[in-house]
Amino acid sequence: VDMLKKYDIPFLGLKEGDHEFEFYADGEFFESFETSEVSEGKVKITVLLEKSIRLMILNFTIQGSILMMCDRCLDDFGLPVDFKGKLFLKYGEGDHETPDDVVFLNENDHTFNIAQYIFESVHLALPYKRIHPNDENGNTTCNNKMLKKLEELSIQNTNHENYDSRWDQLKNITNN
Fold first, then answer.
1. Distance separating alpha carbons of residues 97 and 83, to the nearest angstrom
2. Average pLDDT in the chain
3. Tell me, what's the pLDDT at 98?
């Protein structure tokens, strides 16, 4: 967790106005979270902090690539990440109806750690289906050997010797 200290934004002593910070996240960053789906990657985080007397707005731009397993062929591939988000930091106490993008700070706070926000944002930016992108001709870039094996094992190509007619009644349910 000490590794995540480098994702602190020190705001005490900053003048009112805009301030820019840059951070980088890699495999070591993602592995420091137990629930991470990401184990490898290189991501650049740019934070534009807009500071006023009682409010700070953090504008995040997260860009890079992470290594993911393809849902179709199970090979790893580089998945691009592009995320933009805002986080509002206010002094005071929040209540149970505080929006997710608002964080309340205590008067004694002088830094804010953005590691959890980066982690969550990258995971929220992941697509539901994670498959190799198509090439410039529209052809899949998945592992061809695996695709052929899947085709061989697909239901349409299975041997009908072991056919059990009792399942026909269930097929009718989905057709209605």
1. 25
2. 87
3. 76
Range of weakest confidence among 95-99, 144-148, 149-153: 95-99
Q: Among 62, 29, 30, which residue's Cα sits nearest to residue 45? A: 62
Q: Is the dihedral of CA 74, 80, 86, 91 positive or negative?
A: positive
CB atoms within 10 A of CB 56: 22
pLDDT of residue 1: 55
Instruction: Give the C-alpha distances (Å, rounded to integers) separating 44 from 41, 47, 104, 123.
Output: 10, 10, 26, 15
What distance in Å separates the CA atoms of residue 119 and residue 124, rounded to the nearest whole number? 9
C-alpha to C-alpha distances, 134 to 29, 65, 79, 129, 144, nearest whole angstrom: 29, 17, 12, 14, 13
